[in-house]
Amino acid sequence: MGLKVAKFGGSSVADAIQLMKIKEIIEADDEMRYVVVSAPGKRFSGDTKITDLLYLCKTHMDHNVPYDQLLQVIEDRYVAAAVSLGIDVDYEREFDIIKAAMADGTATADYLASRGEYLNAILVAKLLGYDFVDAFSMIRFNKKGKLDDAETDRLMSQELAKHENAVIPGFYGQDIDGRVKTFSRGGSDITGAVVARAVKADMYENWTDVSGFLVADPRIVPEAKPMANVSYQELRELSYMGASVLHDEAIYPVKSADIPINIRNTNRPEDPGTIISTEGDRSGNRPITGIAGSKNFTSINISKSMMSTEVGFIRRMTAILEDFGVCVEHVPSGVDTVSVIVSNREVEGKLDEILEEMERVLKPDTLEINDNISVIATVGEGMAYKPGTAARLFTALAEAEINIKMIDQGSSEINIIVGVENKDFEKAVKAIYDAFEF
Predict the structure, then answer these.
(1) Alpha helix locations (H) across 161-207?
(2) How far apart are CA 103 and CA 101, in angstroms?
(3) Is the dihedral of CA 228, 231, 235, 238 positive or negative?
(4) Cβ-proximal residues to 66 (8 Å cutoff; 6+ apart), any chain
(5) H or E stretch including 433?
């Protein structure tokens, strides 16, 4: 195969037992030269992720609540893992540095959250005998808080060329003021992707606790099968709509370099997992690749006579939402009607003001709200070439007695998006899955 970059998620590095599993995986594959690790996740049901504990420390700090005991719980988890593995890590020194930053008020939320990955990467580097390379020295964010792709790639390429084998902490980098800045949650996937691009890897392996990317959420469809192959574009659609195996922002860096991703299971390393690539599944055997969705969207439904002849109507509508900092998810429309779908979270606390502004600027005949919407995407590059795909989907929903509140389809014909009531979400996903006989 060639050079591989491997990222191991929180469940894969939760404790010493899991860390020994990843050691065996890496030692069995001499192509796996660069490793990215998350912070330790849950060891068992009811446990708390290290990152959540670190955020809680920040909350205690901000409210002048003692946090020493909580910080000690975190330190004890790392020390216990190191002792179990027979590895000497000076965690006392590392935590003294963290405590000093908390005491003098310089410990930001991003700094504290990043320590989960930082401390774990030090441990894993010693376990493997690899070099530790801090992501802080390589990953850059621009003044808008977004990843600076070009500068990150330049710095990372230069630095990692000096290391034949390295462990890199995921999730964070450095902002323009020289402070630690984190990606959004799950951002270690992005770190792995930019590392793969920087070293020109032949494969980016993303190790988690499932044997690949499943066709549907197994909490809804327990029998959901893993996908053998999926395209970058299909995965982007599914990730954006709520499928959570891989952070959606992790796709661009590897897609731009044409590096395939392999989703693997740390607990079942013999399983082939899912390959994500430019081609996806070109067999033509199935029109649908996967189903994903989320609850809790709001539909703002606007009706106005002769809307279709009113130049700039849609622009003025979306400009109102932009002024309130609201991202638009979908805009299905008719001749004299238009709906705009937004996340409930985006309009929380400001929906009344938005509606008042729409009444003032747009002067609609009617303005109705439905804040009880779930959005489901059925995705597959093959659906554009397979007659009857939409008919099967809508028939399945009709037979399940599910009322469709919204229909949208992208110009690429790679997906069909439907809106249903929140109460019908799980039933709708199951009906669609059953209709396509995965």
Answers:
(1) 188-198
(2) 5
(3) negative
(4) 60
(5) helix 425-435
Query: Minimal CA–CA distance to 183: which of 123, 126, 139, 137?
Result: 139
Beta bridge partners of residue 6, listed in sequence order: 35, 205
CA-to-CA distance for 76 and 82, rounded, in angstroms?
10
What single letter denotes the amino acid at residue 80?
Answer: A
Q: Strand 203-208 to strand 4-8: parallel, antiparallel, or no bridges (unpaired)? A: parallel
Q: What is the pTM of this model?
A: 0.82
Sign of CA dihedral 204, 205, 210, 211: positive
Helix extents (H) in 63-144 = 68-85, 91-103, 109-128
Query: How many Cα atoms sit within 13 Å of 263 on the Cβ side?
Result: 26
**pLDDT, one tens digit for every residue, the chain (438 residues):** 689 999 999 999 999 999 999 999 999 999 999 999 999 999 999 999 999 999 999 999 999 999 999 999 999 999 999 999 999 999 999 999 999 999 999 999 999 999 999 999 999 999 999 999 999 999 999 999 999 999 999 999 999 999 999 999 999 999 999 999 999 988 999 999 999 999 999 999 999 998 888 889 888 999 998 888 888 888 878 876 666 677 878 888 999 999 999 999 999 999 999 999 987 665 556 788 899 999 999 999 999 999 989 999 999 999 999 999 999 998 988 899 999 999 999 999 999 999 999 999 999 999 999 999 999 999 998 787 778 888 999 999 999 999 999 888 866 678 899 999 999 999 999 999 999 876
Please tell me the distance from the alpha carbon of residue 36 to that of residue 319, in angstroms, as a whole number.
Answer: 41
Q: Which residue has the tokens 């849950």?
A: 42
List C-alpha distances in Å: 117 to 14, 160, 206: 11, 18, 16
Residues 6+ apart with CB under 8 A from 197: 153, 253, 254, 256, 257, 259
- Computed on alpha carbons and rounded to an integer, the radius of gyration of the chain in Å comes to 24
- Nearest CA-CA partner of 339 in 375, 311, 309, 294: 375
Print burial letters for 263-295: b (CB count within 10 Å at least 16), e (below 16).
Answer: bbbbeebeeebbbbbeebbeeeebbbbbbbbbb
User: At 120, phi and psi to the nearest 5?
Assistant: -75, -40
Q: What is the DSSP letter of 171?
A: S
Dihedral angle of Cα 125, 15, 78, 60, to the nearest 10 degrees: 130
